[in-house]
Every structure is written in C-alpha cells, then in structure tokens.
Fold this protein.
Amino acid sequence: MNTGGLDVVELRRRTLLGQLQTAEVNLRAGLHQHGMDAVVRAHLDRALAHIREAYIAVNEQTKIRTVQEMAEQLARIEQMQADLRAQQTLADQSSPSIHV
C-alpha cells in the first residue's frame, strides 16, 4: 500500500474515533436525564461499555473481548452488584435502630 493509502486509512481511523467519542458524550448526557426508566438506563450503560470497547479496539489496534465475552462479564458484574445491594438491604433491616 502506498503512503497515500495509509493516510486515507489513518484518516478513517481518526474519523471513527471521533464518532465514537461523540457517541460516548451523547450517551453519557442521556444517562444524566432525570426520570429515566431503569431498563433504559441499563441499555445506555451497556451501550457505553460497547462504545468504550470499540474505542479501545480502534485506538490501540489490539485484540479485545468479543461482544459475547463482554456481555457475559457485564452480566456477572451486574449480578454481583445486585447481590451486594440485597445483602446491604438485609443488613440494614436486621441492625437494631435506636429511636429517641
């Protein structure tokens, strides 16, 4: 490939990185809207994770997790967070409270 061809590839790569950054900014802005449904928020969180992973893949040009691997890891993290919240709720309910 000639130098001109490499320049075009690099320009396309940088354009894509810019588009991914724009997508991340817009998704983050959506996350901060009040009154958002929990399911919508979960989808936006997942979309952000995918955008970040794509950015890493394009920017570092390295092997990354597959979409399936990432989804499975995110699901495990979400389950651990839910378990911790449930444990915290149980601990709060079982701890004695002092009323004056």
Observations:
- Helices lie at 3-31, 38-60, 67-94.
- The mean pLDDT is 87.
